[in-house]
Design goal:
By secondary structure, this protein is α/β, with parallel strands linked by helices. The chain has 7 helices and 4 strands.
Length: about 210
């Protein structure tokens, strides 16, 4: 594991902007930090490269080692894991990524595990902590109860100053579909004039049609 000399915490990193505050807070608490970029949930490949590059830039700016498990970027695995629970997919997605992070920490003798998902105000903190405690019991590797959320706005501000790529959806196909559907719903008129019906409906009147 080149470039990493016995770091205290292996930090799972979902993206560059979300890494900034956690790395700084961990260092303030006396932790050395190494990052692990493992996110097979990201849809699609171009988006993966954008987030990967932003994570590498964050690592360069804050001077911490980052390992990208690019050979393990396998969206098919993500879809297999969440199959049948697409509407409640987040816990399965957390597990997929954290299990790999704990395994990597065990393989390389790293002392603690955490994740930048604990920085996001949009993620399920209780589920993440419960999963972390479960994996801690299985592996013997501590998963400290970090709360990086108070630095939410500071992280946003710093990522903008650094010019890091900031994504507009969580990462998976379903979160992107949800985002686009919300946009479409905002663009869709809630009502039509009384002499018209929805396009495609029986008896629809299309202005200007012969």
């Amino acid at each position: 594991m080149s470039g990493i000399a016995q770091p205290t915490t292996l930090l799972h990193i979902c993206c560059g902007p979300c890494a900034l505050e956690p790395v700084q807070r961990l260092r303030e608490q006396g932790h050395q930090v190494a990052g692990l970029f493992f996110n097979p949930n990201i849809h699609g490949v171009q988006e993966y490269f954008l987030r990967r590059d932003a994570a590498l830039r964050a690592a360069d700016e804050l001077d911490f080692p980052l390992v990208c498990l690019d050979t393990e970027y396998a969206p098919r695995r993500f879809f297999q894991v969440i199959h049948g629970q697409e509407d409640r997919r987040c816990p399965a997605c957390y597990r997929l990524r954290l299990e790999r992070t704990f395994a990597y920490a065990r393989e390389h003798g790293l002392q603690n595990v955490s994740t930048t998902l604990l920085y996001s105000i949009y993620q399920d903190r209780d589920t993440l902590l419960a999963l972390g405690r479960e994996l801690e019991e299985q592996t013997g590797i501590p998963f400290p109860d970090h709360d990086f959320r108070p630095g939410w706005q500071a992280g946003i501000d710093l990522s903008k100053r650094l010019g890091l790529y900031r994504q507009s959806y969580c990462g998976c196909l379903y979160s992107e579909v949800d985002r686009q559907l919300r946009k479409l719903n905002r663009l869709t008129s809630p009502s039509l004039p009384p002499n018209l019906t929805r396009p495609g409906a029986a008896g629809a009147v299309v202005p200007g049609a012969g």
